[in-house]
């Protein structure tokens, strides 16, 4: 039986002063975790377009897709099927983040990069590890990371 892979993007939204936007993930049927904004790629979208759309949908923060930069992609099989997550760096923003999907997020906060909350949603931990030195040790067996250079 073939299971369709999941394609998504995790969005790093830095503030420019050493903080990053993190949400309290409250997805039904899963233990609560902390998570970056992000979501699944829609048909015809690039990772950058996905990042801009998901950021606006989940937080109300509107940033242009042209300003998004893919840092890496991560492949895992945690859900029993392939999941490919792009680590996307957004331009710095201090715009107010609002909860637009209360069924999935209990609130948005900005944390200092050296004081990130736990537990972190696994794909978000991978994405943050692509950006922050010293956080790249979260990779579990069967997960593969690929840096993107341009």
Can you tell me about this structure?
The chain has 150 residues and is of the alpha+beta class. Helix content is 15%, strand content 31%. It is built from two helices and eight strands, in the order E-E-E-E-H-E-E-E-H-E. It has helices at residues 47-59, 122-131, and strands at 6-12, 19-25, 33-35, 38-40, 69-76, 83-89, 105-112, 144-147. The strands form two sheets. Strands 4-1-6-5-8 form a five-stranded mixed β-sheet, with helices on both faces. The protein has a three-stranded antiparallel β-sheet with strand order 3-2-7. A hairpin with a 7-residue loop joins strand 2 and strand 3. It is globular and about 40 Å long.
Structural class comes to: alpha+beta
Could you tell me the strand content as a percent range?
Answer: 25-35%
As a whole number of angstroms, the C-alpha radius of gyration is 14 Å
Order of helices and strands: EEEEHEEEHE
Choose one word for the global shape. Answer: globular
**What is the residue-mean pLDDT, rounded to a whole number?**
93
Please tally the helical runs, counting DSSP H or I stretches of 4 or more residues: 2
Helix content: 10-25%
Q: Sheet with the most strands?
A: 5 strands, mixed
**Distance between the amino and carboxyl termini:** 37 Å
**Strands, total number:** 8
Spatial order of strands in the largest sheet:
4-1-6-5-8
Poorly predicted segments: none
